């Protein structure tokens, strides 16, 4: 099975807080999306924007969230994302959001994505996409062999 | 000059609050949009969705907001919107958001909209749209003549 | 086990759409919150705002979402929510969002909530809250006995 | 008059787009806030979070936005913010959002902020805050003298 991982840092925006003083729950899904976006750009070698431009869409079909701790305005968070491709025409991203310094967990969960065309009709993953994934996984394996472990540097762009 | 007015009630959502305990500032623009949507459906006789389906878009080109008071989660608000059409190819919506019971002001402002096609290219307002507006204004004038004043009932849908 | 149900209608806001032309996935959690808010006000006889004012908070600890169909700007949706109270100090809301006319499913899922104080410390559900729930459930049972079935009228406020 | 400037890069999130294919208008105010947050942390030497922790709040009292061009999902944007302090107890931030590569304008505008305490009551800017600003402005002037011009490096955190 192919697995690719990436790590992204971002800060909690004021607009993402609510009157309880922590982030509003739905923001977690927006952070998950930021994680997916950077993982694809940095590990897959093709941005999700480029994927859509080629007519391949990855709408969410399922999401699960476990809320584990608060996060306040301006807190620096780490989004750790891993994508898995199974034999079926689905992608699954596992995500853990935690505090950058203390590593305390904030929220973890997963999202499952279908492959569709521009009109939302399910399609098989194109062969060029599967090859891209396999090549990215090979690169990861080679890097792990060279260094004795995979430790992707953190991206600080959101 | 043609003027149409409408009134919409909505409640502050938890997702619209921030850690200061009141609504986050950008929500005001989202409420303004709810006001425009219902004004067009109820006063113009054509929803904005139907307008877009006919290839006419009204993107925002300018917005101004004056924040005048707080509004907390679950507070019932009144959005009073008035659209003006001037000779130029622009629409201008004036909006006042206030508390439903106390009538205390929350935020007021305006938005200015261009007419464009689906690709965002500026267009002249179509003749059928101008006629729709004129007819709606006539209806308002006739209703005002019949009742001695215009008092649109409030919509409670959002 | 105590179960209370409610139905709320709302329209998809322009701000809730994304470039795929349907609603952005995280909005589902915001609609779930609108459903909870009205269910508590209408079925429990105490709004969530009043609950917080008495020092009882219900932060989300878990959420699950199954996306089943699109919903476009201005589509009228029905949010059907049911709350369950188990013996443990948790509340669970089951939610189904569907199109008001066609009844086509849009998204379904659940949220699980802990009871905490203002500082976020877990507490047992207060006795007055449990009694409120029990009384609300009795009212539902009595109404069902009187009419031969429960069919809550739909709320159109959001 | 004291003026401090800063530049922040961020990418348009999928959650910030709407069905027109560009960013939804209210996101501009959220980006303005990201610009203010980094300007204060990097130029003032005190984050807005720290300011609030000391009991000083800067709620928005006025905002103006001119929308000048589209920005699509994943586009890299530059937020250029400048804060001005006048004799009155107000702060004014001027903001220009443009495309990082083409420098094409996306949206520009300003926000005006009052000084209040935690309860929202207007206060005078504390002396320590005014001194902090004056010192930051001196640093800018000294740096400009040393290099013959001010060109703050861009922050890539959001």
How helix-rich are the residues of chain A, as a percent range?
A: 25-40%
Shape of chain A: globular
Topology as H/E string of chain A?
EHHEEEEH
Percentage of residues in DSSP E strands of chain A? 25-35%
The Cα radius of gyration of chain A reads: 16 Å
Count of β-strands of chain A: 5
Report the end-to-end length of chain A measured between terminal Cα atoms: 28 Å
CATH topology of chain A: Thiol Ester Dehydrase, Chain A
Mean pLDDT of chain A: 91
CATH superfamily of chain A: Hotdog Thioesterase
Architecture of chain A in CATH?
A: Roll
Which oligomerization state do the chains in this entry correspond to?
A: homotetramer
**Biggest sheet of chain A: strands, sense, closure?**
5 strands, antiparallel
Q: Which CATH class of chain A applies here?
A: Alpha Beta
